[in-house]
Amino acid sequence: MLAELGFIATFLAFLAALYAAGMAFYSVRVRDDRLLLSARNAALATFPLLTISLGALLVALLSEQYQIAYVWNVTDPNTPTFFRLTALWGAQAGSLLFWSGIMSAFAFGALLLNWQGQRRLMPYVILYTMLTLAFFLSLSLFFENPFERYWIMPDNSVVKSVFALGGAVPPASVRLAETANGLNPLLRHFGMIVHPPLLYMGFVGFIIPFAFAMAALASGDLSTNWLKATRRWTLLAWVSLSLGLVLGGRWAYDVLGWGGWWGWDPVENAAFLPWLLGTAFLHSVIIQEKRGMFKVWNMFLMLGTFSAVIFGTFATRSGLVDSVHSFARSQIGFPLFFFWFGMTSVSVGLLLWRWRRGELRDERRLNGWLSRESLFVLNNIVFVMLFIAIFWGSFGAPIFSELVMGTTITLGKDYFLQVTPPLFLALFVLMGVAPLSAWGVTSLRRLGKALIVPTVLAALIVGLLALTQPAEPLALLIYGVIALSGTVALWETVRGAAARHRSLGEGWYTAFTALVARNRRRYGGYLIHLSIAILGIGALGSELYQQETQRTLAVGQSLELGGYVMRYDGFLGGQVAEDGRIMDIAQVTVLRDGREIAQLRPRRDFYPNAQGMNTMTIPSAHSTLENDFYVLLVDWETISARSATFKVFINPLINLIWWGALLLVIGTIIGMYPEDRPALATAKAAQPSQLAGAKA
Amino acid sequence: MTHIAWEKPENAPEEVVQGGIQWKYLIGLIALFIGIGYLILQGTVSGARYFISVDELLSGDYVGKTVRISGAVIGESIRYDPQNLIIDFNIANIPTETKDLARTLYEAVHDPNATRLAVHVRNQVKPDLLQNEAQAILTGKLGADGVFYATEVLLKCPSRYEEVAPNQAIADPMAGK
Questions:
Q1: Chain A partners of B154 at a C-beta cutoff of 8 Å?
Q2: Which one of A48, A128, A227, A615 is at 20 to 30 Å from A546 when CA atoms are compared?
Q3: Which chain B residues are within 8 Å of A611, Cβ to Cβ?
Q4: Which of residues 16-55 of B touch A (CB under 8 A)?
Q5: Each residue of A569-625: pLDDT tens digit?
Q6: Domains (range + CATH), chain B
Q7: How far out from the chain centre does Cα A443 lie?
Q8: What is the pLDDT of residues A373-406, one digit of tens each?
Q9: Between β-strands B66-81 and B48-53, what pairing exists: parallel, antiparallel or unpaired?
C-alpha cells in the first residue's frame, strides 16, 4: 500500500511538473493569464504530492516494511527510530527523492511569496524550476526508484518491482527482517541528521535565483527585479550550503577518525565549488544594485553557481570520483551529465544572446583601484580563481589528462595546499579593506586612516594567539591578516553604534540594535565577515599546528603531548549497545598541570549485522577554545586488555571553526530579516544629518 | 485576478555609459590571471600523480616516482603492527575502468594469475575499511625492492556503497545470510 501510494504520488508530481512547465511556456506564447494560473497551480501541487511520497517512504522506514527494497537496504530490526528517520537520505534512491522534495518546497515558496511582485518573470520561473524538478523525478521513477519491492517469482528468483508481477509472491516478512542490510555504520552519527538536508537545501536552493536569472534573460526584464526577488532565497541557499559544508567537516572529524575535518576530497570540493561562485555572486549583486554595473557578470555567476550544483551532483552520484563520501556508481550518471550539459548550454546561450543585443550594458565604469567596486571586482576574481583552481585539481586535470594523454593524472592534497592558500589570503585582505572603501573613488590616505583601529585590535588578537598557541612569525602575520578582516567588521559596527550613542543620546544597547535594524543587510554581512575570520583562524591553526603521537600504554601508564598528560585507566570490552553494536571502550583520564580535567572514552564499535564495513573507530575529544585533545583507540590486547594503543592529536583552535559557523548563521538571519521600514523612517526623520557616522 | 503585464515595462531610460576598454584594469586583470595561472601550473607539476593500475606500475618505469594506484585488498595478507602503526598488505591488479566494482574486486582477489603487489604503510592507524575485497586507492612510491610505500590510503567497500541485491536467503530459508 505504502509503495503504491508513494510511487503514484511521485508519478503524479512528475506529470504535474511537466504540465506546469509546458503550460507556463505556452501561456507566454498565447499571452493567456488563465493558462499561467493553471501552470502555477500544477507547480504548487508538486509539493504536497512529494510530501505524500516522502511521507510514505518515511512511514515504510518507521514501520519496517522490508519488502520495499530501499527499506531493506538501509535499515534492519536493530536500527533505532532516530536512524530510521535519517535513513530517508541514507542511500541514493531515498536521497534523490528527498532532493526533489526540497526542490518542490523551494519552488512552492517562491511561487507563493514572489507571485505578486514578479508576475512577468513567473512563467519562466515555473518553466525552469519545473523542468529541473521533472528531470530529477524522472531519475527517481526510472532509475533509482525507492518504492520498488521484492517479489519471489514462480522459479524462486527474486525480482524488484513496485507492483506485483504475474505469479509473484512477497517474500516471508521474517526472512526479510532477518536478512535486512542495516544503515551504513558511517551514517549513524548525529551530523547525519542535519548535514545532508542542509547540503541539499544549499544545492537545491540555488534553483530559485537561477530560475529567476533565466527568467530575466528569457523575458527581457533585465532590471534588478530578479536580484531583488531572489536575494533572500540566495542567502538561504548560501547559508544552508555553508552550514552543510562545515557540518560535513564535523562529521568527518567525529567519525572518520583521521584527526582532520577537510581533506580536499573531490566530493567535498564538489560541494565547495558552488559555494565559491555563490559567495562571489552575493557580493557582486551589491554593485549592480548600487551602481548598475556587472550585469552580465552577475548573470554569469548565478548560471555558473547552479551549473556547479548540477555538476557536483553528477560527480558525487555517478561514481565519477573515488571518495569516501560518494554514492554508488550508478546509472544516473549519464542522464545527469546530459542534463548538466544541456542546462549549461541553454543558459550560456541565452546570456550571450542578450549580451550581443546590448541589453546588459553597464551604467557606470570603474574609477580607481581602491574604489569599493574595484575591490569587489578583485574579490570576485579571486573567488572565481579559487573555483578554477579547485575545479582543475579535482576534476579538470583527471578528465583532461584522460582525454588528451590517455592516462589519468590526479592532483592530491599537496596541490590544494600549494595553490589555494595565497588565494584565501587575498580574500581575507580584501575582506578587511573593501568594507572601508567608498563607492566611486577612495584615497589610500583615507583607507589607511580607517584601518588604524582595526589593525591595533588585530595586533591584540595576534598577541593573544602568540601567547597561547604555537606559531612562527609568518603564521602570526597570516593570523593578523585574517583577524583584521574580522576586526574591521567589528569596528565598523562599534563605530556606527558609537555615532548613534553620541549624536542621538541613545544607550549603547539601543544604539546597537537600532543601527542593525536600520541596515540589517550591512550589519548581518559584517557579522558574517567576523564569523569567516574566526573560522579562518580555526582552519589555519588546526591545519598548521596539529600535533600527534601514538603509544601503547599499560593500565596506569601515561603519555604526554602538548602540555597534556593522558593516563590509561582501564578497558570495557564487549559492551552491547541498544542498536546491537558491540563497543570496546578504553577509559582514559586527561590531566593538565597535574589536575584531572576530563575522562575520555575512545572506542571501537563492531556492527555484527552490517555488510561490508563493520567496524568504526570512534574518537573521543576534550574540547576547549584553545584546542582539542583528540584520542583514537588503535588497538588493545584481546584477552586481558592490560595494554592498549592510542593515537592522540592536538588540534589547535579547531573549535573556532564550529563557533564561527554558528555566528555565520546568526549573521545570515540578520541579513535576511526584512528591513524594519517604520523604524527606519522614524530614525531618518529624527536626526537625518547627525547619523553620518552610522551611514547605512 | 490580477492581470499580467505581458509587454516589457517601459523603464526609465537607463544611464548607459559608452566607452572603450578600460586598459589599465584589463592589464591588471591579465597580470593577475598570469600570476594565478602560474601558481596553478606549478601546483599541477608538483602535485601530479599518475593514476595507474598495478600492472601498469610494474611494467612501466615508475620506481621512485609518486603515483596513485588502485587495487583489490587481499584480506588474508593484512598484517598490522599497532605499536608502531605499520600496516602491510597485498593488493591484486584490477582494471582502472570497471562497471561492477564488487564483482571485479571479488574476481581479482580470487584470481591466482592476477598481478599482486606488496604494500607498506607507516604511521597510520589501520583504517576500518581495510578488509578483504576492498578497493584500495594508494598514493606513494614503488621501491626498488618491489614494495609499494604508500603515504595516503583511500579505501572503498563496494557493498557499503552499492545496493546489495538480496541474496537468495530472502526466498530460501535454508540459505545462509
A1: 322-324
A2: A615
A3: 159-160, 164
A4: 16-17, 19, 22, 25, 28-29, 32-33, 36, 39-40, 42-44, 46-52
A5: 999 988 888 878 899 999 999 999 999 999 999 999 888 876 666 788 889 999 999
A6: 50-160 (2.40.50.140)
A7: 38
A8: 888 888 999 999 999 999 999 988 888 888 888 7
A9: parallel
